[in-house]
Amino acid sequence: MSGRAIQNIFRSPHYGDDVLIQMDAIGVGSLPIVMLIGLFSGLIMGQQLGRTLRTYGAIGEIGYVVSVALIRELGPVLVALLVAGRNASGIASELGSMKVTEQIDAMRALGTDPIQKLVTPRLIATAVTLPLLTVIADFLGLIGGYIIAHFQFAVPLSQYWTPAWQNLAYPDIGEGSIKPFAFAIIIALVGCFYGMRTSGGTEGVGRATTRAVVSSSIWIFITTYFLGKIFVNMR
Amino acid sequence: MSERAILRFEDVSLWFDQETPALDQVSFSMEPGESVIIYGAAGSGKTTLLKTALGLLKPDSGRIYVFEEDVTEFAEARWFELRARMGMLFQEGGLFDSMTIAENVAYPLTNAPAYRGARHDGDGEVEQKVRDILRFVDLEQTLDKFPSELSGGMRRRVGIARAIVTEPPLVLYDSPTAGLDPITAYTIISLILKERDMNNASSLLVTHRFQDGHLVAKFRYNPSSGQIEAAPQNGDRPASTKFLVMNEGRLVFEGSLAELTAAEDPYVKKFAK
Q: Measured between alpha carbons, how far is A69 from B23 in angstroms, rounded to an integer?
């Protein structure tokens, strides 16, 4: 299924409307909660790291520490887990319901490839929107970190933002960009896989939904570890 | 068996598990314009046979010919093109519950690669076609409704509209009257006769009810009155009708209505009254 879904990106017919609908559901739909989580993760990190850094007299490094932790790891993983909970479950339950009510068979019977019509648009939409959501969450996380650094630890604006930007290396940006893309593929394909394999009526839909969230979350952690290892070796 | 058959099964077998075959060496053929009625108890393999004919299930042995083409080894991609020439009504309608009735009926015209941008190059044309076909099943007023807002009988009628909107020469009906009251069931069979007689389509109909097969074999659609009526004995209507009976994946009877009603086999006799 994964191979066919990726092949279909380059094959006709293209269901552009479905891609836009999914981008709206996955991207725009997840935006408020991603913004909230991004901001609060920055606030929390600023609060916890600020105390420790002040103990060692290194409060001036708070911008650097927050930016590296957020951009390399926390931003992509938090957003991916959030989208997995919200959308892998949504995809699995939607496709699962279609499967148990013969709608997938009906689609095939009406001369449409369900992989092309249902899986490929969700894959494209997640692969486009998740990196964008991650960038937004990272940026709001940095702002959250700055709010704590400035108002709680009296760190000036330039002392926070200058190291936050200047100390970021290309591998950090690469890691922060590739991870969301990989997570997007995992979330979309795992959700579709469990949805398309659903059997056993409404109970089966519930099972497929749970499995999609659990599996995609596990794969996100495994993938982030191995991708992290590759980027650590590059530095 | 005829070489011109629109649909032909040759010793087709299919197993879901190791113990009992879902289809056991099934052989039959269907001529263009012919109606085939398949009776059988629940679990006898009727729906499996329809899904195999449509390529939704692959047989483990035997050969299947559709429109005189051997489709046994067809890859899924080749089936999509072929299925555009076949209509299918699923047992529960198989309607897309997140789409309106108009979108459901328009689906084959707007999504199937065989029709997309080929025959219908403007939205107005598709909309008109959808209106026409919903008028055909007497449901023009339901355009903007969702399937959940319709009764079971209305959903079947929408399912028929969607199955025939592309005017396929072969239409498969999976238990179109199951669970419906006698009046609604009569309406559904009337629509099937109307489709058969107006478009000269071949129909493969799976059912439990003897009345359904009897109506298909003995009645015809009259375009002037808009009703179905008993076909004259020597007229050219109704189209020839063949009856099959299935039991545990095997075809245990093949013949005409007269042969079915005269059958002595205790299992076959249960479907002849």
A: 60
Per residue in A192-227, pLDDT (tens digit) is 999 999 988 889 999 999 999 999 999 999 999 999
The 3-state DSSP class for residue B232 equals coil
**Which residue in the block uniquely carries the two structure tokens 């559901």?**
A25
- From chain A, pick out residues whose CB is under 8 angstroms from the CB of B88: 106, 109-110
Chain B contact for A15 (CB, 8 A cutoff): yes
Nearest to B88 among A15, A97, A109 (CB): A109
Closest of A174, A131, A113, A100 to residue A26, by C-alpha: A131
Cβ–Cβ gap B92/A103 under 8 Å: no
Do residue A111 and residue B113 have CB atoms under 8 angstroms apart?
A: yes
Give chain B positions within 8 Å (CB) of A111: 80-81, 83-84, 108, 111-115
One DSSP character per residue, chain A reads: -HHHHHHGGGSS---HHHHHHHHIIIIIHHHHHHHHHHHHHHHHHHHHHHHHHHHTT-GGGHHHHHHHHIIIIIHHHHHHHHHIIIIIHHHHHHHHHHHHTTHHHHHHHTT--HIIIIIHHHHHHHHHHHHHHHHHHHHHHHHHHHHHHHHTT---HHHHHHHHHHT--HHHHHHHHHHHHHHHHHHHHHHHHHHHT--SHHHHHHHHHHHHHHHHHHHHHHHHHHHHHHHHHH-
Q: How many interchain CB pairs under 8 A, A with B?
A: 68
Listed by start position, the domains of chain A span 2-234
Interval B174-187: pLDDT, tens: 988 888 888 888 88
Question: Pick from A15, A103, A113: which is nearest to B94 by CB?
Answer: A103
